[in-house]
Amino acid sequence: MTDQQAHRRIIHVDMDAFYASVEQRDNPALRGRPLAVGGNGRRGVVAAASYEARRFGVRSAMPSVTALRKCPDLVFVPPRFDVYRAISAQVHAIFARFTTLIQPLSLDEAYLDVTRPLQPFPSATALATAIRAQIRDETGLSASAGVSYNKFLAKLASDYRKPDGLFVITPRMGPDFVAGLPVEEFHGIGPATAARMHALGIRTGLDLRRQPLSRLLRHFGKAADFYYGIARGMDDRPVEPNRPRRSVGGERTYDADLHDWPAVQACMTALAELVWGRCRARHLTGVTVTIKVKYNDFRQIVRGRTATEPVRDAADLADRAINLLAPCFPVPRGIRLLGVTVSGLRAAGDVAAPRQLALFS
């Protein structure tokens, strides 16, 4: 890494089980109980789960019926996105007291470049401690933070001591810390990519570091350079304040392959609910809906349509996604992953839209 990269100070702050923690803060009767934020109907989906629920294997993006099978005592509460947005604004106002270089990732997490902080502190660790204390004092919620010399390691560090934790990865620690981690714990390597790496004998950061760049390029294409760097604790991506959002989406890899049209419809409906919740949280909608379908041989297709009117609600998003899915059936093989994305973004309520209708695949 360059000297400039080694001397950067990056903090990743992540609120702990944000939506669920807000509900437990505001309703003492929910504290200590397994809690899911989301709908508990047949096609509902978990938007967030408390740590008590996570002990049973309940996770965000999980269909509600699956969550209830894992945890029969699970309590569901409907999301209150207006409340979450207001608290998020409080938290981001705290960030702004310490630096102007803030890259929000969602309502509950952000990167901060504190190489040149606005307030004098003896270290980035002391600054992260102050941020977490102010969040707790002003919102009654806990946040975890990771401190390091790049974004990749700061993100890993914030996950390392969750919940309510703080962890620091120094330039000297970075390469060895990465070497011992399973690749599925790397931010930026999802379940499908981790499975491909396992098939190639790559199970840890050290295994990944031993791969020639030429082999990574052959198997992972344009992502190879990123994987080559992070295996060595290197990541030169800057913190990008006010980066315009181009899309809102989500995807899910399924434990069992999907073959039947009714099952795929139900899964896409649940996924659309999740993505629309993210759109609502940001006061956004969009005119382009794109789906991704990945089969069990890792072949994938992408289809999208730009309409004359923006998406109205979760049901409308689900209908558009399912219409794009229909030509894929009957499927040639099992589906392991579904994804849906909304782009062509605009503020919710803005009905201006392009006149053309475009379909791509």
UniProtKB/TrEMBL annotation:
Binding locations of Mg(2+): D14, D108
Identification of the protein by name: DNA polymerase IV
Gene Ontology annotations of biological process type: DNA repair; DNA-templated DNA replication; error-prone translesion synthesis; SOS response
Positions marked as site (Substrate discrimination): Y19
Keyword annotations of the record: Cytoplasm, DNA damage, DNA repair, DNA replication, DNA-binding, DNA-directed DNA polymerase, Magnesium, Metal-binding, Mutator protein, Nucleotidyltransferase, Transferase
InterPro entries: DNA/RNA_pol_sf, DNA_pol_Y-fam_lit_finger_sf, DNA_pol_Y-fam_little_finger, DNA_polymerase-Y, DNApol_IV, PolY_HhH_motif, Rev_trsase/Diguanyl_cyclase, UmuC
GO CC annotations on file: cytosol
Reactions performed catalytically: DNA(n) + a 2'-deoxyribonucleoside 5'-triphosphate = DNA(n+1) + diphosphate
Gene Ontology terms, MF aspect: damaged DNA binding; DNA-directed DNA polymerase activity; magnesium ion binding
UniProt organism field: Komagataeibacter melaceti
